[in-house]
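Input chain follows. Return structure tokens only.
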Amino acid sequence: MTHELRKKLILQMLDKNEAVSIKEIVNKCKISEITARRDLISLEQKGIIKRTHGGAILTSGLYDPFGFNIKSIENREQKIEICKNAASFIEENDTIYMDCGTTVFFLARFITRFRNLRVITNSLPVVSELMPYPQIKIYLIGGELDNSRKALYGPMTENLIARYKADKAYIGAGGVSLEHGLSSVDEKEASITIKMAQAAKKVFLLCDSSKVENDSYFTYSSLSLVSYFITDKGLDKSYLDLYKSKGLNMIVPLSG
């Protein structure tokens, strides 16, 4: 069982029972006590749980299966791989949109080397990540705060986005399929993503391979919205070939 899957199972156990013991984690995940303790330390460092004697409890009010903290844990390494690749398309003096998705968030750590860059976003985690770098001009789009997703939404947000123009937009998706296009777990998130894409010259979709040919709750655009689709090396070759045959500009790292 992978590290990411174990953490997801631990959080599901905590959501049901409010507290979990090391012994329960060991039995559920079929791992050693040392590995279970390491997983709890990792979750505690992210502020998601609090360790107790012999186990852990959930940090009050934090768990939300669709919230930023939980989603940022899922497929973390793939998201980092994608964003490292995505950063190579950014140039000095660019103005870029970054949406509030957890994949796009990791792009922030790869753009701090730029000396002159404008970033427009509705994501508080992106702002927090970039604040120590004054050479990057940050434009936080106002609106109504969603505490769980740590982002701003609403008509005000959409109206403000329409006033800016960007060289590139970096967006995520809850699901991607050739038949239905892009989908999201939330309508308001989809609305912001569309506005950002419409205001940019080029649109980069950052999406890990687990979401390919999987539809999420709300379909919001065809794949014609996307200029480049950047994913991880875990994408099945049959899907890669199929998407290329449909004219998609696929960016996938070489295996190995």
